[in-house]
Structures are given as structure tokens and as C-alpha cells.
Amino acid sequence: MRKPLVVGNWKMNNTLQESLSLIEGLLSNSLPAERDYVVCPPYTGLSLAGKLIKETKIQLGAQNMHFEAKGAYTGEISPLMLKELNVRYVIIGHSERRQFFGETDLKVSKKTLAALNNDLIPIMCVGESLAQREGGFHHKIIKKQLVQGLKLVDSSKASDVVVAYEPVWAIGTGRTATNEQANDMLGFIRTVLTELYGSSISERIRILYGGSVNPSNIDGLMKQPEIDGVLVGGASLKSEEFLKIMTYSDRG
Ligand code: PGA
Questions:
Q1: Whose CA is closest to atom 1 on ligand 1?
Q2: Which value, to the nearest 10 degrees, does the dihedral of the CA atoms of residues 87, 10, 163, 32 take?
């Protein structure tokens, strides 16, 4: 069985003071066992957040990293630096990185491999634009992003990868994919992963949905058989909202 995973991506939000109150809020309630919880602050908040969540059920994630261990890459952060701060997860190839910072499938692949080589769990993001979905190319685009993003990852490490499907048209727009659209695409993603690595590995890879996840749609999404968890942006910035998402109901 794949362990459900709830990830909060804070993006470029939260001063240290805001991070402190948000995490205190998240720690004020007990969380269901048998689920993984991750918060991904900006780099400047990692150290503080790591201290606050130490020995709790919440784990630390980063939003990006470089693939080299060190060197002349002004402004970049390496896997080793993240590990020093007890980071466990790292988001790779978020659509905002692809759109605004020139992240290519090749870079995504190098970063995904570098994360695995450094015992970090990569959350590799894929997603189509609205034009691609309306043109009927969404499966083709997702397959290309998966095949190219995982190009350097062989089967010995593939089961540690987490894939996040985030349709660009659903991110920050309030327009969530329907449960059926999300479930269908995640099923398709697992088929592609099976083609790449065989079914015993693909059955172990967790696949998340992301894009306008909120307290009202979480229960419906998490009841879909293909959805192993969620990657949450806006609704992870308020502790009451993110708590409701982390404590979603899987009954009924
Ligand atoms: P959103 O962002 O929940 O605000 O739509 C999701 C994401 O970009 O990871």
C-alpha cells in the first residue's frame, strides 16, 4: 500500500514570523497516523521550520535545488545544503519553475536524479496548459514530461520518486480538475510508469494531484482510487485550511 502524502508548497510566501505562527497552528492539532505530511517553505525559512517540526509528524521539503553538489552557480542551493537542514523532500520542475525560470525536462531529469542520489525524495511535477488540454494533447504532453523527466532515473531508484500532476490551468485559479479528470490522468501516469519500470515498481510510486486543492474538495479527491495525495499551494498558507486538508476524511 502506498502511504498517502499531503504536501504544502508555500511558494514565495511567509516571513520567519509568519512561518512561526503557521507551523504553531499546524502543530496545535493531532494528525492521523499512516500519512506523510510535508511543508515546503522558501529557502530562508527552512532552518526555522526544520527546528519547529523536529520530532513531529510533519517533514521538511524544499521547493527547488540545483543538481550539482557545489560550484560557481550564483544564487543556487545544492542537495548537500538541503540535507544539512534535514530536508527530506524536494519539489522538482514545478510549472512556475518551468514557466518563469527556464526549467527544461533535461534539468528536471538531472535534478530528480541528484535528489535520489542524495537521499532526498523528489516530487517531480508534470502538468499541461489550458491550450494543450483544450487541444486534446494533455496525455501526450504528460507522457513526454514523464519520459524525459525520468530519463536519468533507472529502476533501482524509481520507486522513491513522487510524481505530482498539476494541470497549469488549475494552479492558483480556483478551478480544480474534476475528481474524474484527476483520477483519469493519474491512472494514465501510472500506465506510463509501468511502461518505463514495470508494474511492481510503478505500483510503489506515489502520484499526487495539485491545483486549487482546498478543504471543500479534498475529501472527494482523496477518495479517488488513483490519487495518493495532494500538493497544495494557496490553501497551505493558512493553518486552519491546511489542517483540514491534512485531516481529510477517507471514509464513506
Ligand atoms: P494552488 O497551487 O494550490 O494554489 O493551486 C498548487 C501548486 O502550485 O503546487
A1: 233
A2: 80
Neighbours of 70 (CB within 10 A): 11
For ligand 1, residues with CB inside 6 Å are 9, 166, 171-172, 210-213, 231-235
Q: Which three cell numbers stand for residue 52?
A: 519547529
Give residue 111's domain range.
5-246
**Ligand 1 atom closest to Cα of residue 236:** 3
Q: Work out which ligand 1 atom sits closest to the CA atom of 234.
A: 4
pLDDT in tens, 102-133: 999 999 999 999 999 999 999 999 999 999 99
In a domain, 252, yes or no: no
For the segment 185-204, what is each residue's pLDDT rounded down to a tens digit? 999 999 999 999 999 999 99
Domain count across the chain: 1
Q: Is residue 98 part of a domain?
A: yes
Residue 251 domain flag: no
Q: Mutation test of ligand 1: which of 232, 237, 242 has the most ligand atoms closer than 8 Å to its C-beta? A: 232
Q: Is 36 helix (H, G, I), strand (E, B) or coil?
A: strand
| Within-domain flag for 190 | yes
Ligand 1 centre distance from Cα of residue 232 (Å): 5
Confidence of residue 252 (pLDDT cuts 50, 70, 90): low
Smallest CA separation from ligand 1 atom 3, residue: 233
